[in-house]
Write a structure and sequence with these properties.
mainly alpha
Length: 171
């Protein structure tokens, strides 16, 4: 398990950080891009350092571990960042809404104002993000094994015989 932990920590910390940095986290809207890439990075590092061929189950495990690490990072860092940046992001969205159709703009404006700045909403959003990061990093781990594992499956060949017995060389 230790050989899976290091790649999972690297992939998970990366996906967690990229998922909470303002504006960079917007790319998570694209099918949880950072979660998939974090899971793929973890599986790539695991495949690269594994002496035996890696199967898809191992990719799912290392992706899940990366997702757990990323979820913890995103909760610990994301809640305070999102709470602090909430008013700024809401004002930015309101500025964009002003350029919309007036009827739609008013509806979006009301929804943004109803969301308010509550800590509970920030926590619920962080938990939802954590679950999505976990799920999509598993998918990234599976994709990573499919992309990066080029060795044939199956057991490793047995080591050559040492001394004596059939097939041994006489010295």
């Amino acid at each position: 398990m230790n050989n899976k932990l290091k790649p999972a920590l690297i992939g998970g910390v990366l996906l967690g950080l990229l998922s909470v940095i303002p504006f960079v986290n917007s790319l998570n809207v694209c099918c949880c891009l950072w979660a998939i890439l974090g899971g793929m990075l973890a599986s790539y590092l695991y495949v690269k350092n594994s002496p035996a061929p890696v199967n898809t189950g191992d990719g799912a495990i290392v992706g899940a571990l990366a997702g757990l690490v990323g979820a913890v990072v995103s909760i610990i860092l994301g809640i305070p960042i999102n709470y602090a940046m909430g008013p700024t992001m809401r004002n930015l969205l309101l500025g964009l809404v002003d350029r919309m159709d007036p009827q739609q703009a008013e509806m979006v404006r009301r929804q943004l104002e109803m969301s308010g700045e509550s800590v509970a909403a920030v926590i619920v959003n962080a938990l939802i993000l954590a679950v999505l990061l976990f799920i999509f990093s598993i998918i990234g781990g599976l994709i990573g094994v499919a992309l990066f594992e080029k060795r044939k499956g199956g057991p490793l060949p047995p080591p050559p015989p040492t001394t004596g017995g059939p097939g041994a060389y006489a010295a």
